[in-house]
Design brief:
single chain; about 325 residues; alpha/beta; seven-stranded parallel sheet; three-stranded mixed sheet; 9 helices; globular
Amino acid sequence: MPQSSGPKVLVTGAAGFIGSHVAEHCLRLGMRVVATDDLSGGFRENVPDGTQWVQGDLKDRRFVSGLWEHGPFEYVYHLGAYAAEGLSHFIRAYNYSTNLVASMHLLNEAVKHRAKCFVFTSSIAVYGKNQVPMTEDLVPQPEDPYGISKYAVELDLKAAHEMFVLDYVVFRPHNVYGERQNIADRYRNVIGIFMNQILQGQPMSVFGNGLQTRAFSHVDDVAPLIARGPLTPAAINQVFNVGADTPYTVLSLAEEVARAFERPCAVKHLPARNEVVHAFSDHSKVRAAFAPPASIDLRTGIRRMADWVKGRGPATPVRFSDIEIRQKLPAGWE
């Protein structure tokens, strides 16, 4: 995809799942994209053609400063993170250095170089155990270090706007799945985990009774809106939930995944872990600002991802190399 003469933008996490899709949609909008990632959870092959690729770690303040040698950037899209809510309890230092401190390195440079808008991908993890559906006017009460780090960045963006007049847009996606998701990650992305287990002839691992509910969101319902964020006047300096509307139980999800692979639905129940039981959000605000098309239904989205996964084959699950706390580590994560 050729570069255009449009605004130059920086996309972090561009070799990852959602980030690569956002970079692709930025290109489609006529932007000139500089893509960066440390490849800790993403893959170089995910980065769309037509971007300028710069590899490095956002935890390295000198590297982040050097990114602006490829600028200046009108918009910064920050998707670089390690989004493992459950595991974040056991990797607290890594979580905060990766998801919070690294974000501040990026925000500092955006302020110093007078970027027009900072687009941040947060998470509905910021809400914690508030009543559902989760709405943007609720006061966040995150239950895990991942959600805490995301909410801290949101608060700092607001402070940076008030002090330095840096505009921002915050998106809170949830349970996003689809093509390019890393199915080798054994700690997050339940749909990818299920699909990888089916390919290896294993039962799908379900924590607890499987009656937890989530509104699983296909990436094509999320990434285009994130890319349009700074181009949408009604979105500036606002926070938006983004994703699918209909919640499903984890057991229902397992049935859909098995159906897509034409396999029996075999599950293995593991002890329940500490997690929010019901999590789905209201999307009235994002619909009013962006007028998105109807979302992709779960069966269609699962089949699309399954076709992509079948073409790639199974992946060897990767263990996190530096668990910091092992007390109460959930079964299967040892």
